[in-house]
Design brief:
By secondary structure, this protein is of the alpha/beta class. The protein has two domains: 7-212, DHBP synthase; 240-338, Threonylcarbamoyl-AMP synthase, C-terminal domain (Rossmann fold), CATH 3.40.50. It is built from eleven helices and 14 strands. The strands form two sheets. A ten-stranded mixed beta sheet has the order 1-8-2-3-7-4-6-5-9-10, sandwiched between helices. Strands 11-14-12-13 form a four-stranded parallel beta sheet, sandwiched between helices. α1 crosses α4. The longest helix is centred in the last third of the chain and has 17 residues, at 284-300. It is globular. The model has no long low-confidence stretch (mean pLDDT 93). It binds threonylcarbamoyladenylate and magnesium ion. The site of threonylcarbamoyladenylate (TXA) has 31 residues, from β5 and β6.
Length: 343
Amino acid sequence: MPSAINDTAIQAAARALEQGELVAFPTETVYGLGADAENPAAVARIYAAKGRPQNHPVIVHLAPEADPGYWVPAVPPEARALIDSFWPGPLTLILTRAPHVPAAVSGGQDTIGLRCPSHPVAQTLLREFRQGKGGLAAPSANRFGHVSPTTAQHVLDEFGTWPGSPVRHVLDGGQSEVGIESTILDLSRLDTHGPVLLRPGGIGAADLARVIGIAPSAPDAAAPRASGTLESHYAPATPVALAAAPVLPGLLRQLADGGRRSALIRRTVDAGPTVAQAVLPADPNGYAHGLYAALREMDAARADIILVETPPSDEGWQGVNDRLRRAAHDSTGVLARLLPPPV
Ligand code: TXA
Ligand code: MG
């Protein structure tokens, strides 16, 4: 069961982590499924619980006072500047991994992802865990490929509460503020590739460029693997399709006329016939905050399709558009199949 948030519950969670157990905890982006980053058996439990391939690296979370230099042979000046500007906060930096850090956290790669979350519960947990000197390996607390959780209830929906569940400790810290996963910037190949944006998130490319004086580039073929960068990810069970506001009412009408059940996530458009709807804010931060809860809610409506009103394409929407594109990836062609044949 989710524990009410008090210091005793957080201390108990820290002790469980020190014993090699898993603890789900809130961060400002999404909920994480944490394990001691320096205990390979504990890290292996995360992979088993999620059903995640072994070669996908996980992010190591640090307390605000922790020394990132413990985890890497050297902290490049670009990383130092970004840490000073954006930590604690939704920015993960990929750096070369120090030889003493177990390879299990990086899926065997020679890099490591580091992040310092700003959520107060995450920070208290990280300060309690091994007196703030350890690191918590934590992917999002969902089964592999599913939508990330932004509430403690979402975590329970993913892993259940039965006695044998691999996730017995869930700290409840309310709804995650940012709502989509951290921005991931690769600084491990600065000399040859410069900074590379592996995953857009709450901190935009322009914000990063302002601090390091160079715009990050898009991932190349040799970029470090990141499961959040798989074409299909963050996906509900119901097919997802994006549709522009002007065509949405007509599409909904045609689907309904053909006996199809539609769920809709909208911002502005006045909708047509649906079995469920979620209205998200018109600004990108508000939209990101509510997106995953809306996807889960629409998924629960057991519709034939979840239609999403296409958001604007400006830079501020990059993180949201990235997640929606991945959620819709496996549904290519579904809309055409559901529509009645043209007469
Ligand atoms: O906001 C977040 O980042 C959340 C919260 C819990 O902190 N965590 C999260 O973890 O989204 P996860 O595992 O679901 O996604 C982390 C991404 C994955 O795509 C992973 O492959 C990538 O980070 N990653 C981690 N370490 C890496 C490394 N050394 N090199 C390349 N990619 C890495
Ligand atoms: Mg994830």
